[in-house]
Amino acid sequence: MNYLNYAAEAFILIPLAAVILNNILPKKFMEDHFHILSGAAALLQMAAAAYIFCIMDINRMRHYSFFILWEKSTSDSGYFSVGPVALVFLFCIGMVTFVSVMIAIRTVDTKKISYVNLLMTLLIGMNGMVLVNDLFSLYVFLDIVGISSFVMIALYQSRKGLEGSIKYLVISELASIFMITGLAFIFMKTGSLSYNAVSGVLPADISDPQTILIYVSVILMIAGFAIKTGVVPFHSWLPDAHQSADTSISVLLSGIVIKIAGVYGFIVLTGLFKGVRAIQISLAVLGMTSIVVGALLALRQDHFKRIVAYSSVSQMGYILLGLSTGSVLGLIGAVAHVFSHAAFKSTLFTNAAALHEQTGTLEINEMGGLQSRMPVTALSSVVAFLSTAGIPPFAGFWSKLLIIMALWTTGNRVLAGCALCASILTSAYFLRLQKKVFFGPLPEHLSSVVEIKGSIKFIEILLTAVTTVVGLLFPLILVYLQSRGWI
Amino acid sequence: MLITGFLMILAGCYCLIRTYHMLKIIIGIEVAMKAVTMFLILAGYMNGHMGLAQAYVITVIVLEVVITVIAAGVTIGLYKKYGNMDIRNLTQLKG
Amino acid sequence: MDLRGGICMESIIYVTLVFLLVFCVMAVVSNSIIKSAIYLALSSAMLGVIMYVLGAHWAAVFEVSVCSGLVTVIFISAISLSKMKRDEMDKLYENKKRLSFLPAALIIGGVLLTVAAFAKDFRLPAAAAAVSEDFREILWTTRQVDILGQITAILAGGIALVVLFQNDEQKK
Question: Which end of chain C is more exposed for a tag (fewer CB within 10 A), N or C?
Answer without folding.
Answer: C
